[in-house]
């Protein structure tokens, strides 16, 4: 598997894809159906998008199970694989022969020909959301991979959202004062490991991370109009440049917190060339959806969280940053914690990332990947008068609606562990698992 198509075939074989055959409108209908599929724990393949001949896929990486399928490992190993990805770089390699992503070349691009959705009810318009933006440091040969949502303004004109601390923003800031544009490319529908690598913050060439996750170099080809290597097996490549001295109002758009961003003046790009496979597939992500959360918050930060927890206890069973909590809530399970240890663990977890805000610690009989089990532990095991420790006045994420204007929030530790003697007295009721399908068929 080294491309979206191979991944899609594996997902289909595993029953992970809802095939949407009814025609959907790209304006606010596709996003609603994609959201329903994600919440039903499925990816979505839209065979027919009104006004377009190109199918759209979404939700490919919105669950740990699908991420594990992309990596070819069990769910329990995702964290270890992600943690190792930056420690064993595998550089890219030139693709042999004609690159699939350049089978068709369009020299005068028109973005209105592509099924780019207006995803959520209050999004300001159509956005490219799942494209991996590839840029290059003007001062070194390294490639940077990132997600930067792009609002569609015209046939060849888009916004490009680059937050202040992003690498690509640093590249552009160095050259914009001299009036230079920053060349970049966008890979739509690349190998899923390229999508995962784009979520990392790493100071080397970020193709190294994708190669490490795959265990083989990412095959690349030179873009047609600039000196940037693009993933040879991607579905579609946009080539363009961030324009010096130009800003335009961008947003609102559904943010990862599940709330809308404001509208602000942002950078603007011109698309100069589009190349694609024959019969290409467009890929998209819903703003604030589970895939946005899983890729943006979970895969790179769970290893970090695990490292901080393991630093102070050998009794960590598992850690999780659930996609339904914006990456702000960390859940940690411990096997037979020492008295008081759950709180030490929570303090360490709070130090692992500025976004971590609610830390829930449970015993290892709780499945931290099952929200119902976690709610059960909160409902039955917390001594609220002493198990909850709020910590006011701490630095958090300024997109958190509960923060003040400076991004200051209150954090909280919730100790939902039972001490050993209580666990022995109160044994969790667990019914043995059954294969329900057998019983429904009436097999004897
Ligand atoms: C789906 C998704 C959308 C994102 N959209 C944006 C965006 O519009 N602007 C931005 O600055 N960062 C956005 N991010 C975050 C960055 O892409 C991400 O932090 C990436 O690691 C940044 O790369 P860098 O650390 O190499 O600068 C998004 C992340 C995801 C997963
Ligand atoms: Mn980077």
Which characteristics define this entry?
21 strands, Pnp Oxidase, Chain A, single chain, 27% helix, alpha+beta, UbiD C-terminal domain-like, 13 helices, nine-stranded antiparallel sheet, binds flavin mononucleotide, binds manganese (II) ion, 444 residues, 26% strand, five-stranded mixed sheet
DSSP helical segment count: 13
Structural class by SSE content = alpha+beta
Q: What overall form do the CA principal axes indicate?
A: globular
Mean pLDDT: 97
Count of domain modules: 2
What is the class of the largest domain in the CATH system?
Answer: Mainly Beta
CATH architecture of the largest domain: Roll
Name the CATH homologous superfamily of the largest domain.
Electron Transport, Fmn-binding Protein, Chain A
Report on the architecture of this protein.
With about 450 residues, the chain is of the alpha+beta class. It folds into two domains: about 80-285, Roll (Pnp Oxidase, Chain A), CATH 2.30.110; about 315-425, UbiD C-terminal domain-like, CATH 3.40.1670. The protein is about 25% helix and about 25% strand. The chain contains 13 helices and 21 strands. The protein has helices at about 5-15, 30-40, 65-70, 80-85, 165-175, 190-195, 205-215, 290-310, 340-350, 370-380, 385, 420-425, 435-440, and strands spanning about 15-20, 45, 55-60, 95, 105, 125-130, 130-135, 145, 150-155, 155-160, 180-190, 220, 230, 235-250, 265-275, 280-285, 315-320, 330-335, 360-365, 390-395, 410-415. The strands form four sheets. Strands 5, 6, 7, 8, 9, 10, 11, 14 and 15 form a nine-stranded antiparallel sheet that branches. The longest helix is centred in the last third of the chain and has 23 residues, at about 290-310. The chain is globular, with a radius of gyration of 23 Å. The two termini are about 40 Å apart. The mean pLDDT is about 95. Manganese (II) ion binds near residues 144, 201 and 206.
């Amino acid at each position: 598997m080294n491309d979206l198509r191979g991944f899609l075939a594996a997902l289909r074989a595993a029953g992970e894809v809802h095939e949407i055959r009814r025609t959907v409108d790209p304006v606010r209908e596709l996003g609603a159906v994609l959201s329903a599929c994600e919440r039903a724990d499925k990816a979505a393949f839209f065979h027919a998008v009104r006004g377009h001949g190109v199918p759209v896929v979404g939700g490919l990486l919105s669950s740990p199970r699908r991420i594990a399928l992309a990596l070819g490992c069990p769910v329990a190993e995702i964290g270890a694989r992600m943690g190792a990805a930056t420690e064993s770089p595998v550089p890219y390699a030139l693709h042999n022969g004609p690159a699939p992503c350049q089978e068709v070349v369009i020299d005068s691009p028109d973005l209105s020909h592509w099924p780019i959705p207006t995803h959520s009810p209050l999004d300001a318009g159509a956005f490219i959301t799942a494209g991996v933006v590839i840029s290059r440091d003007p001062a070194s040969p390294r490639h940077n991979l990132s997600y930067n949502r792009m609002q569609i303004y015209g046939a060849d004109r888009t916004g490009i959202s680059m937050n202040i601390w992003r690498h690509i923003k640093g590249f552009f800031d160095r050259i914009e004062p001299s009036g230079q544009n920053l060349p970049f490319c966008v890979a739509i529908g690349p190998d899923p490991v390229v999508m995962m690598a784009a979520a990392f913050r790493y100071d080397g060439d970020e193709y190294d991370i994708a190669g490490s996750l795959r265990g083989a170099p990412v095959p690349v080809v030179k873009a047609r109009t600039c000196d940037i290597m693009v993933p040879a097996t991607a579905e579609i490549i946009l080539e363009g440049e961030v324009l010096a001295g130009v800003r335009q109002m961008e947003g609102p758009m559904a943010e990862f917190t599940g709330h809308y961003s404001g509208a602000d003046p942002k950078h603007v790009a011109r698309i100069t060339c589009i190349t694609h496979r024959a019969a290409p597939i467009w890929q998209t992500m819903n703003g604030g959806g589970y895939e946005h959360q899983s890729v943006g918050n979970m895969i790179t930060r769970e290893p970090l969280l695990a490292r901080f927890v393991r630093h102070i206890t050998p009794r960590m069973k598992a850690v999780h940053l659930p996609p339904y909590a914006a990456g702000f809530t960390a859940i940690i399970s411990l096997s037979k914690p020492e008295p008081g240890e759950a709180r030490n663990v929570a303090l360490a977890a709070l130090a692992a990332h500025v976004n971590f805000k609610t830390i829930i610690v449970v015993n290892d009989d709780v499945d931290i990947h099952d929200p119902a089990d976690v709610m059960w532990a909160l409902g039955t095991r917390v001594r609220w008068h002493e198990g909850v420790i709020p910590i006011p006045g701490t630095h958090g994420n300024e997109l958190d609606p509960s923060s003040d204007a400076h991004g200051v929030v209150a954090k909280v530790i919730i100790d939902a562990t039972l001490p050993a003697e209580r666990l022995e007295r109160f044994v969790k009721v667990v019914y043995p698992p059954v294969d329900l399908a057998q019983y429904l068929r009436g097999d004897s």
